[in-house]
Structure formats: C-alpha cells, structure tokens
Amino acid sequence: MLVPESAGVSRETLVAWLKSAAPQVSVGLMAADAMAYGQAVRDLEGAGVPLLHYDIMDGVFCPQMTSGAGLVKATATQMLKDVHLMVDDPLNHLPAVINAGADIVHVHPEGQKHVHRAFVELDVPVQGCATERKILRAVALNPGTPVEAIRPLLPVVEMVTFIAVDPGWGGGEPDEALRDKIETLRTLCDQLGYDPLICIDGGITLKTYATAAHMNPNIIVSGSAVFKGGGSIQENLKALTEI
Known about the structure:
Elements: H1 11-20, E1 24-28, H2 37-46, E2 51-57, H3 69-74, E3 80-86, H4 94-99, E4 104-107, H5 115-121, E5 136-141, E6 159-163, H6 176-192, E7 197-201, H7 209-213, E8 219-222, H8 224-227, H9 233-242
Parallel strand pairs: 1-2, 1-8, 2-3, 3-4, 4-5, 5-6, 6-7, 7-8
C-alpha cells in the first residue's frame, strides 16, 4: 500500500510506519524497461507500491554507470523516492539528489574521507514535501565491510542497508554471512541504544525473497522480482506477498 499521509508528517512517524508495515518492498526502477519508465511508475502506483528505488552508479565507485539525479527529479510520483548512491565522493552528488526530492538516501562509507559529513548534509527537509519531514538517512554496507565500521555513524542515520552483492556486479544472493552481519548490528544497537531501520538490497528474486524476509528486515529492495518474474507487476508482487 502507498504510504499513508499520516506517516509523511515527520521523519519519526515515517520510520515508525515502515517498522509497523515491514517488510516493505522498494522496487528498483533500473530493472524496468528504460524506454517505458513512465508506464512502470504508473503501474507500481496502481499496485500500491510505497517505495521507488533508484540505483545511481557513476562507473567509478562500481563498474556500471546509470541515470543520476535528473531521473529522480523527473519522476512525478506519490511513492517515496528511495535513492541509493553508489558513487565516488557522494558529497558532490548530494545537492542534486536533495533538490530532486529524494525521501531516502543511501550513502556508502567505503573509500570516503568525510562520510559523517554526508549525513550531516542530508539532515534537511525533503524538497517539495508538504510537511517539514526530513530525509531518511541510510548507511549502506558492501558485503566486505564490517558492521563495526559504522558504529560512529549510528547516531546520525535512520537506516542501515546491507548489500548482498558487490555493487555493479551480478549474481550473489542473501546468505549466512549477511544474516550474521545483521545479527551483529542488532546486538551492537541493543548495547548502544539505537534502533535503525534495516534494509536488504541485492540478489533479491522470487527464489531468494523468502531468505531475505526471514532475516526480518524492514525494507527489501528488488527490481527483478517485480519486473522480470514472469508475470505482471501485480502478479509478481502478489507472489512476493504469498512468500
């Protein structure tokens, strides 16, 4: 279902709704036909999808290069704009992403000099939002990055995103190593008094969705399971729900 208006009043109420309605699927637009993004967005809205996921890759941080903030801004939608920055030095990209109306922004700590500053810059209201709701800040971890690396960032994020596949490469799926990392985060947060949203991204298909769901995340990112599952968007979403 689409995000209710009451959940959009503040960042805190949105976080609470995402926790209560878990797991939510954030649908990766990159898996849709690039020549028909507009129709894909309309179909997703018609199906009640609450989150639209954008993979922004610069060909430097990871091998692939995809559309940037321009596509985010051009999308007219009631869905939350969920933007995953897989880029070198995201501080340079944040102004455009913020201006594009991003509701959620995932930033990677790997290789950055000033990752804390990125989350400070993201502590601003969503552009174009009727309320003063602030952007949800997510720190995203590559498969080889330990949870301990983000301990200093937990006070300034609302979400931790676990990447099941190296960004820009295909294959892979949620596995026991990912499960262990999620449990490590939960233990650490219990000790420190934090309760961030948990998101799983990468390798999610109709076959692997159940594995991810059993790890009890709040959000699961998937494009292929929705657009390439062999049926319509409605049928594929129903299949995920049944799983």
